């Protein structure tokens, strides 16, 4: 995922470093995880995508937030959601090694990613991927990993405007993008 945003960390919140992949094959080719780990983390991220992907009541609104051609209609309903753009796999959770993420715990360490209209990748909670300035690794603020995604509510023009757009956090803090 070459178009990740580069911002400096250090806003007082810990970061979770890891890797981002578009496909299981890219994960396997990266060599950091086993084939089984790649498959399991991808499946966990897809399950989260089904539950927590941002939802919009208009295709135009979805595309304003995620870019032209990056949205799909959900199940014949008048609900639109962004395409699953890939997934982030955290190397650490609560200072534990990847062993704490394996098998039934992938839902604690993998997050689906969505493209933002201005570039960059975000979780359904609005946390952005960035390069950690101290390690040079891909990262997100650890709230994007510690806080489990919740079932998404359908957003209208009003709710998107009140939030400040996709990738903006709903409360005024220095997190995310």
Give a concise summary.
The chain has 177 residues and is an alpha+beta fold.
Largest sheet composition: 6 strands, antiparallel
Question: Roughly how many Å apart are the termini?
Answer: 17 Å
Helix-strand string: EHHEHEEEEEEEHEH
Cα-atom Rg, whole angstroms?
15 Å
Give the quaternary arrangement of the chains. single chain
The coarse silhouette is globular
| Average pLDDT over all residues | 77
* Total helical elements: 5
Strand content: 15-25%
Outline the low-pLDDT stretches: 1-10, 93-97, 169-177
Number of strands: 10
Observed structural traits:
177 residues; alpha+beta; 10 strands; 5 helices; disordered C terminus; 25% helix
What does this structure look like?
- The protein has 177 residues and is of the alpha+beta class.
- The protein has one domain (15-163).
- It contains 5 helices and 10 strands; from the N terminus they run βααβαβββββββαβα.
- It has helices spanning 24-30, 35-52, 59-66, 143-146, 157-163, and strands spanning 15-21, 55-56, 71-73, 80-82, 86-90, 110-115, 121-122, 130-131, 138-141, 154-155.
- Helix 1 (24-30) packs antiparallel against helix 2.
- It is globular and about 40 Å long.
Topology of this structure?
Elements: E1 15-21, H1 24-30, H2 35-52, E2 55-56, H3 59-66, E3 71-73, E4 80-82, E5 86-90, E6 110-115, E7 121-122, E8 130-131, E9 138-141, H4 143-146, E10 154-155, H5 157-163
Parallel strand pairs: 2-10
Antiparallel strand pairs: 1-5, 1-9, 3-4, 5-6, 6-7, 8-9
Helix pairs in contact: 1-2
